[in-house]
Amino acid sequence: MRQTYRRFIKKQLMDTKKLRQKILDLAIHGKLVPQDPNDEPASVLLERIKAEKERLIKEGKIKRSKKSGSSDTLHYENVPFEVPSSWVWCRLEDIVCELKYGTSEKSSSVGKIAVLRMGNITNVGTIDYSNLVYSSNDEDIEQYSLEKDDLLFNRTNSSEWVGKTAIYKEEQPAIYAGYLIRIRPLLISSDYLNTVMNSGYYRDWCYDVKTDAVNQSNINAQKLSQLMIPIPPLKEQERIVVEVAKWISLIDTIKNSKEDLQTTIKQAKSKILNLAIHGKLVPQDPNDEPAIELLKRINPDFTPCDNGHYTFDVPSGWITTNLGSIFNVVSAKRILKSDWKHSGVPFYRAREIAKLSIYGLVDNELYISEEHYNSLKEKFPVPKASDIMISAVGTIGKCYIVKESDKFYYKDASVLCLCNDYQINAKYIYHIMRSEYMLKQMYDNSKGTTVDTITIEKAKQYILPLPPLAEQQRIVAKIEETFSIFDGIQNSLEA
Fold it and tell me: What class, spelled out in words, does domain 285-469 have in CATH?
């Protein structure tokens, strides 16, 4: 079940991120642009970098690296992957003049100059200039001021995002904070280096070398200095940067178009549900048994609801009622945490019901014993086919229709069960519970002190329009027909 769930999630979340990563990986493997035999080999470039570093050291502008075992000839065995013959491998420390930690001085909301922090480094290799803080420390401004094409390396962050990098393009004067490291390349394209440091190869390296503490991972400057970099000829670096930029621009356009279309699909689905609950999605049939007759079979003393805040005119044959008139709304017998098991009968909380509602399956790790479930079943209602489960805490209003094959119990208060003991079309209720009309009722009447909560009594009072049973079936068929078209479009966007 766990693997099936993960595969499903992966499929649903597929987007342009994967394409972006593929482009970067092709670039650093020498497969994005062709090689030119007329280009100066990267080995010659490295010799020029070495000479430039020696000049800067003699002038006292930078310090010599403390690494041991250095040689005049850069040669590495067991390289991470093969590169074209005109390329070479080197360590990051071989092609930069500094790896420098940022300021530890406390920033403020105003000041002379912006201070870039780890939150300003995005996960796609750019700098976000919103939510800035500032410094007025002249010593820090002199020591930590950024220059055009400096790279910023995020040395401390979550396990997923430690090692984020971004290139500074002099958008505005700035210094940088202590959780960042300034990388200043020598005679190397900073844009190419940033390409490497946003690739899948690089993310794997970060994961391998990081050290972990409570909620944080870290990669220090010493480890960073040893990062192996595939270096193309300088001319090829420039061609790679141009080609990557073209592809990233195209990918961003696709991403934005996808998002626009997905928004339109979402709005269209909402409109269909709105038409459905107003009796405008399918035609009425005068031969249908009026909904009032169904309500009278359920409760001979039934009287229609009259709540002007939530009701509207409904077609002839429909009735306005509340949820408690057509369902027995219940919660579960309390299950103690000490009763949770690693196997047995699945035990669902609001989060699991939400997953079932969205994905149709759940990666569940909580259970109660078979014996406990059977004892509950003897004394209290357990979910049965066509019952509707509703998430009632936090992410409220997510609905799941219980299947014949389902066997589970659920957490009291966090989940409610609409026991479908009468002839109500469960799919009709499932769909209209997703309409703006019903969601508004739920959110208007669910405000708790800390989290949104649906109680049994509140749920019973939700007002809903009820068509004849035959029309409920026609509405469901039309909703599922149109939604399947939209889902097909959405799946094609995610392929």
Answer: alpha beta
